[in-house]
Amino acid sequence: MFRALLDRRLKGECIAYILEKKEFRGLEFTVNHSVLVPRPDTEILVETAIDVISEQKAKKNDANNASALRNAATMHDASALHNALALRVLDLCTGSGAVAISLKHEMPELEVYATDISHEALETAKANAARLLPNSNIRFYSGDLYNALSAEQFNFHCIVSNPPYIPSAEITTLPKEVQKEPHLALDGGQDGLQLIKRIIEGSANYLCSGGSLLMEADPRQMGTISSWLEEYGFCKIKTYKDISGNERVIGGIYE
Question: 12-30: string of b/e by CB count within 10 Å (b at 16+)?
């Protein structure tokens, strides 16, 4: 048994796949070859989302919403009160579910939705949610980005994503360990921006006015992404640095 595990390591397989687990923001996620291994850099995406959502929550509960809240409370309408207060978050390309589950774990009041094109990845995310947050009610959808949500009729206050963003030609230059992770979750097309552009283009149909879009990306891509965000109606565009000091997350507010 030990020898077999050692052989896998010597062949370049990462320890997380061998142990079938990886810690992320204090939670231990099950990982396998259908999902990317959660990385510390992606914790910046979660931290940024929490900060942005907290600001939105404060605004949602301010005087501009007082009337709706009073009416719901006066009518003793629990459903209306919940809808007035609830913040909905969508995690695209959820993979192991690390981002979606972490957000729900740290902000239980959120309504969290997650999608992935890979059925195997989605099953892994569901299993992680069931084990880590058994009563979380995170809603998982199978499909290609927003197409997975065709039956949903509401908008989101925040969309987050750690999409594939590695240029196709660079996949073979990655460390051997990374090359053994699913290429579907790594390969962002010729320039690495194929999925990111589609996420930005489709976001207007799924974001509330004043909603936020946050994405992890390569530092070299930030200029192009910023231009696209501005072109598609986003303001207050900002980048956020990872633990190495590199720009790793970019986002903006949809007007």
Answer: ebbebbeeeebebbebebb
Give CA–CA dist 111/137, Å, rounded. 8
Q: Note the pLDDT tens digit of each residue in 96-137.
A: 999 999 999 999 999 999 999 999 999 999 999 999 999 889
The half-sphere exposure of 52 on its side-chain side, counting CA atoms within 13 A, is 30
The residues with which 234 forms a beta bridge, in sequence order, are 254
Query: pLDDT-based confidence at 215, cuts 50/70/90?
Result: very high
Kindly report the pTM of this predicted structure. 0.89
Average pLDDT for residues 188-203, to the nearest whole number?
A: 97
Domain spans of the chain?
2-254
Tokens coding 129: 């949610």
Note the CATH number of domain 2-254: 3.40.50.150
Give the sign of the dihedral formed by CA 37, CA 40, CA 42, CA 46.
positive
For 12-28, what is the mean pLDDT?
87
d(CA 183, CA 198) in angstroms, rounded, equals 18
Q: Exposure of 212 by Cβ count < 10 A (0-12 exposed, 13-18 middle, 19+ buried)?
A: buried
What mean pLDDT do residues 65-85 have? Answer: 52
